[in-house]
Specification:
44% helix; Rossmann fold; alpha/beta; single chain
Length: 202
């Protein structure tokens, strides 16, 4: 049995937290999860990441953010961590949003949403706006509860439905398999590989 390692998370939102916890649970390393920080959007997470990287702390942190419309993952990484990377920090970037990683487990996600798997693109990392794509797909769900939870209400200014994070987090915890999804997403595969070789410094 490998020694237990406690890692801490920093994420943009509740859905990213659910995804990272599932990835860690399915990791080849024997991790336990401490507190999860952030969950206040990308700007806050960027500032938190820079503070953590500049600190001399030895607490292991795993940080996940969306690429969104930034030029490329390497340039975002340099912007967030301009100095030498703290060896106790992993920063991974979802291309283009963590929703792409959910879509990458195509058959399970299609079943959960009640749609045909052919509606989900095979190149999920190539979807420029995965969240919008996911909502568009959810509109075609045969399950009313899915449509009402994920899709914004008519005439609403909201970008997501009233229980968007709740329904998708439920899928993550119950059905999503990161090791299946990584086969269809290079950015997810790289994140899992980085996590599997992560060796925090005491």
């Amino acid at each position: 049995m490998k020694p237990n390692i406690t890692v801490y998370l920093a994420v943009e939102d509740a859905l990213s937290e659910a995804i990272m916890k599932k990835i860690i649970q399915q990791s080849s390393n024997n991790y336990s999860i401490g507190a999860c920080y952030g969950k206040r959007g990308k700007g806050y997470l960027k500032n938190l990441t820079q503070r953590l990287n500049n600190s001399s702390g030895k607490v292991p942190f795993i940080i996940i953010t969306d690429l969104d419309q930034d030029e490329c993952a390497p340039s975002l990484f340099k912007e967030w961590i301009p100095k030498a990377n703290n060896k106790n920090i992993i920063l991974r970037i979802a291309v283009h949003e963590v929703e792409a990683w959910l879509l990458a487990h195509r058959e399970a996600f299609a079943k959960h949403l009640g749609i045909a798997s052919k509606l989900i693109p095979t190149d999920v990392d190539g979807i420029v706006k995965p969240k919008e794509q996911l909502i568009s797909i959810a509109r075609r769900s045969r399950f009313r509860i899915i449509r009402e939870s994920i899709v914004p209400k008519p005439h609403s200014t909201a970008k997501i439905g009233p229980d968007y994070n709740g329904v998708l987090s439920e899928f993550v915890y119950k059905h999503w398999d990161s090791n299946e999804a990584r086969k269809n997403s290079k950015s997810l595969n790289k994140a899992i590989e980085a996590l599997n070789v992560f060796k925090p410094i005491d």
